[in-house]
């Protein structure tokens, strides 16, 4: 026998590939059933659209601190509305495909990877035929309700963009005010000048963060507490008085070399406390902005363009460090309108 491969005598597909007889669905033979199924699917898409709208309402109407059965009420509403809407869209599409789109069995021969021009034309013809069989053009009720629910699905995405954080406008004031004590951020204890050594840095907060009401409950809690801490967090450092070079009008802003600055970097708002006590430099860990605390928090390196806001200090009758006012500068990351907003704040003060 020759070692050469012999040509295949018959390359045509077999006449009977073993497929069972096609079973028609109720929707294929009963137009009333098909219409009923179409209405059911359309209602799924419509309800999904309403749930997507409900997500937006829940975002604005339910307080973030509200609870429901021990869970976050807002998160529960988010899950029920967005999850329920997506579930209905998915179920509706599956029902559409299984009950209304064409379901004829097809048998195709294997063919080379590179298709001929005739095959490509045939594929496009089949694709167009599939689109026609899907009823996308012939069933406007389903098509329009699906497109409507998909359009409404974009609303939760737009709403969630707001959750990236509040706009910088309105961040001009913090809870600091004259007479409020500085407390240690870890223990909540007030700070005395005698508690600090030269070269030391202490992370601090306003005393209101740790205050409680008559029932012993915190005055601030939840989101309100986090918002206060995000704007009012401070660092307190002590240097030798001769190493401090205060600018005009800030000669009395320190107490025996103790100065207080915002903990929020003026670049993009990272919390900073990397302290070089020998050089009096404070470094931001995010983008290496460096501030000279001995020279009014001036920027000496990095992408930040504004000095760290400084809090004027004093001592109360019991010898504890207190704020003499709020920050005179805006405590916030830099943003385009900052210069304008700072000018308004200066005119107000």
Automatic annotation (TrEMBL):
MF GO annotations: 2 iron, 2 sulfur cluster binding; metal ion binding; monooxygenase activity; oxidoreductase activity, acting on paired donors, with incorporation or reduction of molecular oxygen
GO CC field: plasma membrane
Segments for region (Disordered): 1-31
Bias kind Basic and acidic residues: ranges: 12-31
Start and end residues of each Rieske domain: 253-322
Cofactor: [2Fe-2S] cluster
Primary site of residence: membrane
Membrane-topology annotation of the record: Multi-pass membrane protein
InterPro entries per record: QcrA_N, Rieske_2Fe-2S, Rieske_2Fe-2S_sf, Rieske_Fe-S_prot, Rieske_Fe-S_prot_C
Location in the cell: Cell membrane
Keywords (A to Z) from UniProt: 2Fe-2S, Cell membrane, Disulfide bond, Electron transport, Iron, Iron-sulfur, Membrane, Metal-binding, Oxidoreductase, Respiratory chain, Transmembrane, Transmembrane helix, Transport
Membrane-crossing segments per the record: 43-62, 74-97
UniProt keyword Protein transport present: no
Highest taxon of source: Bacteria
Similarity comment: Belongs to the Rieske iron-sulfur protein family.
Function (record text): Iron-sulfur subunit of the cytochrome bc1 complex, an essential component of the respiratory electron transport chain required for ATP synthesis. The bc1 complex catalyzes the oxidation of menaquinol and the reduction of cytochrome c in the respiratory chain. The bc1 complex operates through a Q-cycle mechanism that couples electron transfer to generation of the proton gradient that drives ATP synthesis.
Protein name: Cytochrome bc1 complex Rieske iron-sulfur subunit
Organism: Aeromicrobium endophyticum
């Amino acid at each position: 026998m020759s070692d050469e491969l012999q040509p295949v005598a018959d390359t045509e597909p077999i006449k009977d590939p073993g497929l069972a007889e096609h079973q028609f669905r109720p929707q294929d033979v009963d137009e009333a059933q098909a219409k009923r199924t179409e209405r059911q699917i359309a209602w799924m898409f419509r309800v999904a659209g309403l749930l997507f709208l409900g997500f937006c309402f829940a975002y604005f109407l339910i307080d973030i601190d509200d609870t429901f059965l021990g869970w976050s009420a807002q998160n529960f509403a988010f899950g029920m509305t967005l999850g329920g809407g997506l579930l209905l869209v998915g179920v509706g599409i599956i029902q559409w495909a299984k009950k209304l789109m064409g379901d004829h069995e097809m048998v195709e021969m294997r063919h080379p990877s590179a298709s001929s021009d005739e095959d490509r034309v045939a594929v496009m013809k089949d694709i167009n035929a599939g689109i026609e069989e899907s009823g996308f053009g012939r069933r406007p009720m389903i098509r329009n309700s699906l497109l409507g629910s998909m359009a409404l699905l974009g609303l939760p995405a737009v709403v969630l963009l707001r959750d990236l954080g509040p706009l910088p406008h309105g961040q001009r004031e913090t809870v600091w005010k004259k007479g409020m004590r500085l407390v240690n951020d870890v223990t909540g204890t007030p700070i005395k000048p005698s508690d600090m050594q030269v070269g030391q840095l202490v992370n601090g907060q306003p005393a209101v963060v740790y205050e409680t009401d008559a029932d012993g409950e915190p005055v601030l809690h939840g989101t309100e507490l986090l918002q206060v801490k995000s704007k009012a967090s401070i660092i307190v450092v002590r240097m030798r008085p001769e190493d401090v070079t205060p600018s005009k009008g800030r000669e009395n802003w320190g107490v025996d070399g103790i100065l207080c600055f915002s903990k929020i970097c003026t670049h993009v708002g990272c919390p900073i406390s990397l302290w070089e006590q020998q050089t009096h430099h404070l470094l931001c860990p995010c983008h290496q902005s460096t501030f000279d605390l001995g020279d009014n928090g001036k920027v000496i390196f990095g992408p930040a363009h504004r000095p760290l806001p400084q809090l004027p200090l004093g001592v109360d009758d019991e010898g504890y460090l207190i704020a003499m006012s709020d920050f005179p500068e805006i405590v916030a990351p830099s943003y385009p309108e900052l210069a304008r907003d700072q000018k308004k704040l200066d005119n107000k003060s």
